[in-house]
Amino acid sequence: MNPYVWLTEPFGYGFMTNALAVTVAAALVCSVLSCWLVLMGWALMGDAISHAVLPGVALSYLLGLPFAVGALVFGLGAVYLIGGLRATTRLKSDTATGVVFTTLFALGLAIVSKTPSQVDLGHILFGNVLGAGPVELAQVLVLGALTLGIVLYLRKDLTLLAFDPVHAHAIGLNARVLNAVLLGLLALTVVTSLQAMGIILVVAMLIIPGATAFLLTRRFGGMLLVSSALGVVSAVAGIYASYYLDLSASASVVLAQALMFFAAYLFAPRAGVVSAALERQRVAA
User: Fold this and answer.
1) 124, 130, 134, 137: CA torsion to nearest 10
2) Cβ contacts of 112 within 8 Å, gap of 6 or more
3) For residue range 188-214, what is the model confidence (pLDDT) as tens digits?
4) Confidence (pTM)
């Protein structure tokens, strides 16, 4: 097949063009936020919020509202419930997180099971990016731009908080407010990405790009750039794979990210397993 035809054929269909735009936008936002989640050890928090929005999405479908409305309400609610449990009990962070997200996820499943004919659980859990229309695209672009704008504006403060929270407090930064803002942005990012990835696979998009970039770079600025590039490349590769191999689009994107991670795990210049073994052999010789 002619390479030009191979590259352009999928986008002769409007739904494929929308799918690509939605997936790239969602992947870019997730990849940027992923860097802070990896450095701060908040991967479980991303998992928690993505699962906690299920009842909000289900209720939005039932009430005829945009799913983003319910998802954002429950996502932010989960953030503050977790914070409240941590502040008012002796529970550790991971325990409070587990209690909240499993409870809300179970509530969502209960709502869905009560109205199986009205709520498509598969689309909620695994996404339906090929069904994204102009409204969903506009929603992802607006929420994504808002999230990126805020996180880049606060980039220096958030980075200092991630690397040295004691110093951040010493120079007058309000760690509690910054943590709340970052958690709110995490909830907004989950909402942004639901259409493309669904509740379950969005967790991978919030963790894998940052983890891969962490293996490949030593500076945070480089980590942001590498993570963003990996997110966008995996989104494009996943959409092409879904078209030509007849695979789930969201699963294809995550698998592309996973392949990049394992390549970095094996061959990263300093942290790669194979690279380190070859370097030890060279030094021994």
Assistant:
1) 60
2) 54, 58, 119, 121, 124
3) 888 777 766 777 778 888 899 999 999
4) 0.86
